[in-house]
Model the fold of this input.
Amino acid sequence: MAKHIHTGKLGEQLGEIYFTENGYEILEKNWRHSHWEVDIIAERNGVLHFVEIKTRRTASYGLPEEKVGRKKMQNLINAAEEYLYLHPQWKRIQFNILSITINNAKPEYFLIEDVYL
Done:
């Protein structure tokens, strides 16, 4: 397996732990519709969170969150619209980016909440 794929999968596992430890209930992991995917769909305090997780091993090539561009956010929104069509009970939603930098010591987390285009 390519190193970047391994890093991404590790980041998703760390993200799940991060959200669980911070009071979120994980509803879906790697939820897909068509060619769109949401890394984590979670609930906390009646709000449905659609989360994109970006992970890097160092900041040498920039911060992980810098890789979430307009197209990635639009894909997240498109996936969320389909999820909400299938689960219309949700009235409050939020889009988040979890940036994880894995260094030698321990992972560093940076949660960007309520992201808009």
Notes: The first strand starts at residue 25 and ends at 33. The chain is about 30% helix and 35% strand. Helices lie at 3-21, 70-86. The CA atoms of residues 24 and 45 lie 8 Å apart.
